[in-house]
Every structure is written in C-alpha cells, then in structure tokens.
C-alpha cells in the first residue's frame, strides 16, 4: 500500500474535515502518499485528484463542511461510470481508498472493492442512520445545533403561549429528532419509526396548558413530513396557536463538536491502519468507546436499530 486516496461523498457533515486530516496525517506518518479526490465519486470519474501534504489539512479540524467538496453522482451508480472511476484510480496509481459518507456512499465503496480497489468506509452523515455504529460523524454536532434552535424557539414560544413544531433532518431516521428532543425537553417527538397519533400530541399540549405551561416544543423528523398539516390539526383540536420552523441545512453546517472531531480523528487513522494491514470492504464504527470495523455486507444487513428505550424515556420525562 503506497498511495491512498480519500474522498467525501453524499451530504456533507461536520467532522468530515477532521477525518480527512486524520487520513492525510496518519497516512504520511506511515510513509504513504495521499491523494485527495474532489467532489466525491463525481470527481473520481472525472479525475479531480491531487496529492495532499501536511499543510493541505492545516487549519481545518474545526471547520464544518468538507474541504474536498462532495457530490451525489448519478453516473457512478452505473457500471460504465464505475469503470471510468477505476480508470482514473489506475492512472493516479491509487492502491486503496477511504470513503467518508453515508449508506449510498458505502454501497459505491463496496462496488469498488468488487472491481479490485481495497476500500474502507467512514460513516459521515448527520442522520445517524447506519445501525452498525452507535454514532456517525456529524450527528452530535447536528443534535447540538438543533438544541440551540430549540432554546431560541422556546423563548418566543413562551412569550406568546404557543406551540412550536420544529422539523429536523434525518431522511427516514428519527435520531436527530429523538436525541435533540430528549436533550431539549420537547413535549412530543414524532419520528418515522413510531406510529404517530395526533390525539396523544394534543392531549399532552392541553394537559400542559392546564397546569400553566407557557410553551410547547414538538420535534418532527422530516421522514414523517406534513408539518403544516399537523400544525393546523393541532390548532383545530386544542385551540393553541401553533407555528412551524423547518431547520433545514442549518443543521449540516457549523464547527464540529469535540465528540465529532475525536471520532473522526480516530476513525481516519484507523482506516489507514486497516489498509496497511491489507484489509478491505470494511466500514468503521463506534461501540461504547471502542472503534470497530465491520464488513460492508453486515452494514447493509442491519436496518433496525431505533432506540425505543430512549424514545420511551423522552415520553416519560415530558408527561
Ligand atoms: O443525509 C443527510 C441529509 O442532510 C438528510 O438529513 C437530508 O434529508 C438530505 O441530506 C438533504 O439532502 P440535500 O442536501 O441534497 O438537500
């Protein structure tokens, strides 16, 4: 293993830069040449690559986004696109590749392994929707960003005696809503993994109002959708004025938390070690305090991992 490529793919997440830095610095420490691929798989197909040195990754550990840029490539989903990528990989003499991204990016990485290039995946997504790992890089930062927004909305919610629905990201995974809701003391948390009953939400709001509560925060995962309709229904059923805030991409930006920086640094260095040990087709994760690595095949097998106990606890604490 002489030359290692690194790319970020799919939606960016805070901590991706810390991961790139760790791959570059630990790779160079171990005597490797590191090639940075710009714009994810799109850049891999186009050959947007350049050698990185120690200075290339200076002053990035604290920055959100990804200095390598990212993309969602339609062409890479085709066999022809992947063949073009392999051509570029060979031209640049890449012996192993580190892919930082979510499940779609991992599927691409698995295909590259099949075509003969050893690949290691780092879970970079705010969604926390990869169930083989307890945390993905960027999730903790996104939860803290939502928490900050909850605090601000609570101020205005209490001033007007309103209910506020806050829609957060996460595609089909409710983890951002669940964890930000628990940490932020939300009255209700609505996620795709649990059947949603409007009457339960309304009954909590009415009980809260009757005992003098001035504000109500409802966290809604985007996978459930229908924020405006839910808000209208709440107003009709409870008579409580209800506002909607869709946080959107604000959750994806910002300086990564210490947790995400440390996770990304450990995983980036471990990815280099695995490639040097001759490993391939593996995804990195965290279990407790331990960094683990799992075959991509097992990554895609684990789809059910919603933390029901945490959801139940949030419900109990918001009675
Ligand atoms: O996967 C990360 C994510 O931020 C999801 O939470 C969200 O649904 C999606 O990406 C948004 O994608 P885009 O940036 O392409 O609008």
UniProtKB/TrEMBL annotation:
Active site: 127 (proton acceptor)
Chain positions recorded as ADP binding sites: 21-25, 154, 185-187, 211, 213-215
Pathway as given in its UniProt record: Carbohydrate degradation; glycolysis; D-glyceraldehyde 3-phosphate and glycerone phosphate from D-glucose: step 3/4
Catalytic activity: beta-D-fructose 6-phosphate + ATP = beta-D-fructose 1,6-bisphosphate + ADP + H(+)
Record key words, sorted: Allosteric enzyme, ATP-binding, Cytoplasm, Glycolysis, Kinase, Magnesium, Metal-binding, Nucleotide-binding, Transferase
Subcellular location(s) per record: Cytoplasm
Residues noted as binding Mg(2+) in the record, renumbered to the chain: 103
Tagged with keyword Transferase: yes
InterPro entries: ATP_PFK, ATP_PFK_prok-type, PFKA_ATP_prok, Phosphofructokinase_CS, Phosphofructokinase_dom, PKF_sf
Protein name in UniProt: ATP-dependent 6-phosphofructokinase
Biological processes per GO annotation: canonical glycolysis; fructose 1,6-bisphosphate metabolic process; fructose 6-phosphate metabolic process
């Amino acid at each position: 293993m002489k030359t290692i490529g690194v790319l970020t793919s799919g939606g960016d997440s805070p901590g991706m830069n810390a991961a790139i830095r760790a791959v570059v610095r630990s790779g160079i420490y171990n005597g490797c040449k590191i090639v940075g691929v710009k714009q994810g798989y799109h850049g891999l197909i186009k050959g947007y690559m350049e050698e990185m040195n120690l200075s290339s990754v200076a002053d990035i550990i604290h920055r959100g986004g990804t200095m390598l840029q990212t993309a969602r490539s339609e062409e890479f989903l085709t066999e022809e696109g992947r063949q073009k990528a392999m051509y570029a990989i060979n031209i640049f003499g890449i012996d192993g590749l580190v892919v930082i991204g979510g499940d779609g990016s991992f599927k691409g990485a698995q295909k590259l392994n099949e075509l003969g290039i050893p690949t290691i995946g780092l879970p970079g997504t705010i969604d926390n929707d990869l169930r083989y790992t307890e945390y993905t890089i960027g999730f903790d930062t996104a939860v803290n960003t939502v928490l900050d927004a909850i605090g601000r909305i609570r101020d205005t919610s209490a001033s007007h005696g309103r209910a506020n629905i806050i829609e957060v990201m996460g595609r089909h995974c409710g983890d951002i809503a669940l964890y930000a809701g628990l940490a932020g003391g939300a009255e209700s948390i609505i996620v795709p993994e649990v059947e949603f009953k409007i009457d339960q939400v309304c009954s909590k709001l009415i009980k809260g109002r009757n005992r003098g509560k001035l504000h109500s925060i409802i966290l809604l995962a985007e996978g459930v959708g229908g924020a405006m309709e839910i808000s209208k229904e709440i107003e009709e059923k409870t008579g409580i004025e209800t506002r909607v805030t869709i946080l959107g991409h604000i959750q994806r930006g910002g300086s990564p938390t210490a947790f995400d920086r440390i996770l990304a640094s450990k995983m980036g260095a471990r990815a280099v070690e695995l490639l040097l040990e001759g490993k391939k087709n593996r995804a990195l994760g965290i279990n407790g305090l331990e960094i683990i690595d799992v075959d991509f095949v097992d990554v895609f097998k684990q789809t059910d991992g919603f933390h029901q106990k945490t959801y139940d606890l949030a419900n109990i604490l918001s009675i």
